[in-house]
Amino acid sequence: PQAASARSDVRDCSTDPPYLPPTAINTTARLAALRDTMRAHGVHAYIVPSTDAHMSEYLAERDSRLGWLTGFTGSAGTGVVTQDKAALWTDSRYWTQAERQLDCNWELQRTTWIQSIGLWILEAVPAGGNVSLDPFLFSIDTWGSYSQALHGSGRTLLPIETNLVDQVWGEQRPPPASSEIYSLPEEFVGSSWQEKVAGIRQQMEQHIRQPTAVLLSGLEETAWLFNLRGDDIPYNPVFYSYTLLTKTSISLFVDERRLAAAARQALQAACPGPLCVELQDYEQVRAHLHHYVQGNVTVWLGTEYTTFGLYSIIPQ
């Protein structure tokens, strides 16, 4: 009886037909649609991470692309899809969970090493093939690791700014957050946002490279800087945003319709001037950064939270 109950709990792809537990998700149609989209873009392998554009540890439903595509809901994993194969890499915390949630379209790879993903891709994709990913979902460091893993192999790492999973997910993808972004009460704030801005500008002055701007991509960073909170990600007091802080200006990229009136007032009390926060649409960060770096500027950023997509907008 013990063996039987174990069997009813996890998938068995060796039988005909394969046995799937009731917790497994049928991904056949999703994979077929993704493969069609990949063919249209000339992509031989597509890498899907378990992160959002801010390298957040926890995700909003809208950003759970790996979960939607595979059925696997663990917090850490990477999926790779080719025209005839699909594999999921995850660590030992999640092996049993993956065997309960994946259907037999997916191979489970019991490691998270990028070298392992690279070797699998080299076997699955012939020389001359394109390996693609969304550059706005991979940190600078992670992109570098993939680049290294495929270097000199005859396979091209090809960034595609259109997210192919989002294209397939279509209208079923959950909508963006719409709840209010609010100011923290003063009794909970260590220092005002103006003091924090002054502190960062002082660090810029003292830095050996003399940066003219700081780019903040981590959601905690912007929430901390402006003493603002939201609930765009369950159980996390953050909201989707970027900040570009220069010596004379402050740009906050956010859905400004969601800012509470008091929050907006606090940010814009000193306008115009160097302590005036200019509100820009969240989606405008790429265009704004592209425009800013046309000048003789030096941008200071963190490699951990900044995506390769934003990094590559900035000239060397």
UniProtKB/TrEMBL annotation:
A GO molecular-function descriptor: aminopeptidase activity
Keywords for this protein:
Aminopeptidase, Hydrolase, Metal-binding, Protease
Creatinase N-terminal domain segment(s): 30-162
**UniProt cross-references to Gene3D superfamilies, sorted A to Z:** Creatinase/prolidase N-terminal domain (3.40.350.10)
Pfam families per record: Creatinase_N, Creatinase_N_2
Family indicated by similarity: Belongs to the peptidase M24B family.
Q: What is this protein called?
A: XPP2 aminopeptidase
Q: Which gene encodes it?
A: Xpnpep2
